[in-house]
């Protein structure tokens, strides 16, 4: 390096060092402004008052810094949850980080950043065939959705899944206590085999030690001889919704609505394999293990179940 280049480099380094020194002096003056006069400190530290006040006016306020930190956490939670959370859930996550903020402020910050969660789009396909001659079980559940133990009440339902390759149906079973999806199957037709598969998966996964109340709608799949025999074999008691009353099975229907809002309507499934993989990821990794649920004190189903187990052991 020639002498001219070394000179330029040294001047740059020197200028940077002087700037850092001045910055430290300004910070010292600000930190001790309640103890000593600004004028005296500027004179002792050999900096100008005008330079100090210019630095102070250009420096972001504590309020601005706090807003920037909060917006960064909002952005993190929004994308970490794949754009599925709006201001209510993100506010709860911020509260868990000991950040005191209102839902309205979070909503304003999200609007400012252009962050908007998935929006549901109505697309209704009828999946309940109640015009059959199979026996109908009584409505034992009777909308008693608050259950204090896992593997006590399971609720089941079928929903339609859009796919370019072929029409698909999802059969799901939820534990009413933990809201965990304990069994599910994806298939091309609404058959008894489809719902039996979901039931078998749920039983294999949880192995309930006591009699389970199984609630569903009046669909022919759940009322079929094969399904009723399987429930009897697994020591489960059947319960069915009243005719045309969607509220009797509201919890599992709510899950299917959430699934569609947060995944199905936001994704174009080209193949059955793609649909299976993305639904698997959503149910097993996001919904069961990560998605916070208002009815569970804003915990995920798996975390809520773990807390119940911990309380049971310590009792």
Net shape: elongated
CATH topology of the largest domain: Nucleotidyltransferase, domain 5
The percent of residues in helical segments reads 40-55%
Computed CA radius of gyration, to the nearest angstrom: 30 Å
CATH H-tier superfamily of the largest domain = Ribonuclease H-like superfamily/Ribonuclease H
- Average pLDDT over all residues: 88
- Tally of DSSP helical segments: 12
Major sheet, described briefly? 5 strands, mixed
Q: What's the helix-strand series? A: HHHHHHEEEHEHHEHHH
Protein model, in words:
The protein is α/β, with parallel strands linked by helices and 315 residues long. It folds into 3 domains: 17-57; 65-113; 153-314, Ribonuclease H-like superfamily/Ribonuclease H (Nucleotidyltransferase, domain 5), CATH 3.30.420. Helices cover 50% and strands 11% of the residues. It is built from 12 helices and 5 strands. The chain has a 5-stranded mixed beta sheet, sandwiched between helices. The longest helix is centred in the first third of the chain and has 29 residues, at 3-31. It starts with a helix and ends with a helix.
Short description:
By secondary structure, the chain is of the alpha/beta class.
Topology record:
Layout: H1 3-31, H2 38-45, H3 49-58, H4 62-80, H5 87-96, H6 103-113, E1 153-161, E2 168-175, E3 181-187, H7 192-206, E4 212-216, H8 220-223, H9 225-233, E5 236-240, H10 250-262, H11 272-287, H12 301-314
Parallel strand pairs: 1-4, 4-5
Antiparallel strand pairs: 1-2, 2-3
